[in-house]
Design goal:
eight-stranded mixed beta sheet, Serine Threonine Protein Phosphatase 5, Tetratricopeptide repeat, alpha/beta, 2 domains, 297 residues, globular, 44% helix
């Protein structure tokens, strides 16, 4: 049981620093900064080499703009540089193509009154250009300004691991942000390939960090390189043999992309063994049974 101790209530905006990492975001940045206007007492923007009006726009909003040498690509180091220069007791992190739902301010204000060592998931709604509907995921973007809460990972950087590593918790909130994908398919593909290369470098540098494999599999999947994604998923199960979700994950690849129901069945059974009643695994096993009955008929 976690006991949350309330301090004297902190109130927006003085308790909150917005920390951002940007490059050539003159189109997106004004909309992002308008969404937090009046909610944050400080804006810290790390710029990795903008050649457009990004820095001028940031300065017009009163931001502290910090140049950062990105000759060696390390998104975590750049984000941590900004956080290290933030003065408020709490950190809010946004990307330039994201906006804060202003109706969420009351939730943030409530959380700022707690002193629990926790990171808070924000509900992110992803809007892709031309898509009929949005997708949703959760990202940790609000946390206390502590020197041991820092990002990890040269790409797909996250703060989650450092929070959990010092005994902190991760909690979901009702805070909503909207994320607008504006890049075309070819630009996204080039970025995916760039990330694949950096992730491979990270894995070579530290083969024990299995979190990098999760992101590598996701990049291959987005590139529709399903054989490569399957190989990485298999490697994840070898590194995390007691992770039911990893077995479910590789089972879906064996079933859907490798067309190997025998192997997939073994994966899903292992997931069920590790997590009895695992609904997703049971659902896939039923699907395999139905497919086999159809073949018999």
């Amino acid at each position: 049981m976690v006991v949350i101790i309330k301090q004297e209530m902190l109130r927006l905006p003085d308790a909150l620093s917005l920390c951002m990492l940007v490059k050539n975001e003159e189109r997106n940045l004004p909309r992002c900064l308008e969404s937090v206007k009046g909610f944050v007492g400080e804006i810290v923007i790390v710029d990795t080499g903008s050649t457009d009006e990004t820095k001028k726009i940031a300065s017009n909003y009163g931001a502290k703009v910090l140049p950062f040498d990105f000759g060696f690509v390390d998104f975590a180091a750049a984000r941590n540089y900004g956080i290290a220069n933030a003065k408020a007791p709490w950190i809010l992190v946004l990307d330039a193509d994201e906006t804060l739902d202003r109706a969420s301010a009351w939730v943030i204000d409530k959380l700022l009154g707690f002193n629990e060592p926790a990171g808070y998931f924000l509900e992110r709604h992803n809007h892709r250009l031309g898509a009929a509907s949005s997708t949703m995921d959760y990202v940790v973007r609000l946390f206390p300004n502590r020197p041991d809460f820092r990002y990890r990972g040269r790409v797909h950087e996250t703060v989650d691991g450092s929070i959990l590593g010092v005994g902190g918790r991760l909690r979901r909130t009702e805070i909503r942000i909207d994320h607008n994908f504006a890049s075309d398919a070819e630009s996204r593909r080039r970025k995916n390939l760039w990330y694949v290369q950096i992730l491979k470098e990270e894995i070579t540098a530290d083969p024990s960090d299995d979190t990098r494999l999760d992101f590598l599999a996701a990049e291959y999947h987005q590139l529709e390189m399903y054989n490569e994604a399957t190989e990485v998923a298999e490697q994840i199960t070898r590194m995390r043999p007691h992770d039911a979700r990893a077995h479910l994950f590789v089972g879906t690849y064996h079933l859907i992309y490798q067309h190997d129901p025998v192997r997939a069945r073994a994966d899903f059974n292992q997931a069920l063994k590790l997590r009895p009643g695992y609904a997703e695994a049971e659902s896939f096993l039923k699907l395999i049974d139905e497919q086999e009955r159809l073949i018999e008929r």
